[in-house]
Amino acid sequence: MQELIAARMRNVKPSFVREVLKAAGRSDLISFAGGLPAPELFDVEGLREATLAVFDGNAAPALQYGPTDGNAELRAALAALTNERGANAQPDEIVVTTGSQQGIDLVARAVLDPGDIVLLERPTYLAAVQVFELAQAELVGVEGDEQGIDPDELERVVEELAARGRKPKMLYVVATFANPSGSTLPEARRRRVLEIAVKHGLLVLEDDPYSELRFTGEPVTPMIGLARDIDGASELTAYMSSLSKVIAPGLRIGWMVLPEWLHSRVVITKQASDLHASTLAQHTALNYLRSGRLPGHIDRIREAYRERAEAMMASLERHLPEGVLTYRRPEGGMFLWASMAEGVDTMALVEKAVASGVIYVPGIPFYSGNAPTHHMRLSFVTVTPEVIDEGVRRFASAVLD
Ligand SMILES: Cc1ncc(COP(=O)(O)O)c(C=O)c1O
Fold first, then answer.
1. What CATH number corresponds to the domain at position 380?
2. pLDDT tens track for 307-340
3. 121 within some domain
4. Are 194 and 234 in contact (CB under 8 A)?
5. Contact 308, 388 (CB under 8 A)
6. Is 283 a residue whose pLDDT tops 90?
7. What spacing in Å lies between the alpha carbon of 55 and ligand 1's midpoint?
8. Are 333 and 385 in a shared domain?
9. From the CA of 240, how far away is ligand 1's center (Å)?
10. Is residue 179 part of a domain?
11. Which of 248, 267, 290 is the last residue before a domain boundary?
């Protein structure tokens, strides 16, 4: 029956992370693999109240079909949340999505024709790669460093493509606490990336699920906020974010802030996809945002994640000899991007790690095109500091075996 499958599906691989997560379901395995928020930190009481409040009074709007761009009061609350980060979003620029993952897909479907070029930082978010591959885009990587994408490299890649008569359409970037690298683009680089985008007519898709999870250092204004200072940049910047990492991924509520020309097209695409995000989830999210519990809840998450990041770094130092593994000290987010000596194959090592009772994600799947083999992503948030230490001990025994 393979001939019945669409051609565009044939080369798309299942997500390595999803496959790893299936394995991580094994109860004896300690997982540093998934990007899952710490389950014991969910504000269950607050969400219970927010859910029950949906049924106080008139529950019909939460049970009925709703507008494709989302509930107007929720859009206003999400605009306010975005603006606290330094943007200037208006509620009617917002589209509520079924998780920010859907936002990536909707923009891809509204913008990309098969063969169009999408620029991606190297390494990048795996499920975004999956979206762009399904859209039959050509993926072109742009190298970065511990501060994220390198604007000089971006310019070089764009000009090299231009010399071959090719013009990329879009740059996808996680500017703050990137998945998987954890890196954050400094403000000066953000401005330069926006200037390059304007010069070359490139849409910048800024994916920002993690910026609220900063536990040290100073916040950096999102690119959509900086775009206001650069002539022509606001028209070319689309922003997306999510309640997944700050409230709960199970709500499946994300949002986008879109320039007008793209907004109407994305709304039509979303209509065709799922009519609208769950009205029940939207009302629950709105009640939660109105309850005033979010700031305190985010403070608790930040504190716990800071403690867990420090626990992981301390355990790595305790259990591994110096120089075996180097990593970037995270300032927030969920991930520690670690590197072994060049040439070490972290994909082969993961099998030994699983045999020792711990799992992580090797770096290779996060790259399109040729990939270095010696990196890995360790999530420090899903398990408690005690379990982190035991996981690192098992990891070290696999590495040193
Ligand atoms: C960079 C990035 N974007 C988007 C998502 C999707 O999040 P959600 O669809 O739950 O909002 C994730 C999830 O891990 C992510 O890491």
1. 3.90.1150.10
2. 999 999 999 999 999 999 999 899 999 999 999 9
3. yes
4. no
5. yes
6. yes
7. 29
8. yes
9. 10
10. yes
11. 290
How does pLDDT run across 38-57, given as a tens digit for each residue? 999 999 999 999 999 999 98
Same domain, 150 and 167: yes
Of the residues 18, 96, 100, 335, which should be mutated to test ligand 1's pocket, given the most ligand atoms within 8 Å of the CB?
Answer: 100
- The CA distance from 379 to 30, in Å, is 11
The number of folded domains in the chain is: 2
Both tokens assigned to 170: 């879009």
Domain enclosing residue 322, as ranges: 2-43+295-400
Query: 395 pLDDT exceeds 80?
Result: yes
Residue 54 within any structural domain of the chain: no
What is the CB-side half-sphere exposure of residue 173 using CA atoms within 13 A?
32
One domain, residues 85 and 70 = yes
* Structure-token match 């770094």, residue found: 313
Q: Is residue 56 part of a domain?
A: no
What is the residue-averaged pLDDT of the chain? 94
- List the CATH number of the domain containing 107: 3.40.640.10
- pTM attached to this predicted model: 0.95
| Residues at CB less than 6 angstroms from ligand 1 | 35, 99-101, 125, 174, 179, 207, 209, 242, 244, 249, 254
82 and 185 together in one domain:
yes
Where are the extended beta strands (E) located within 116-262? 117-122, 138-145, 148-149, 170-173, 203-207, 237-242, 253-257
Q: Do 277 and 310 have their domain in common?
A: no
Residue 24 pLDDT: 56
Judgement on whether residues 180 and 268 belong to the same structural domain of the protein: yes
- What's the gap in Å between 121 CA and the centre of ligand 1? 16
Q: How far apart are CA 210 and CA 207, in angstroms?
A: 9
Give the pLDDT confidence of 222-244 residue by residue, as tens digits. Answer: 999 999 999 999 999 999 999 99
**CB 239, CB 225: distance < 8 Å:** no
CA-CA-CA-CA torsion sign (57, 61, 63, 64):
positive
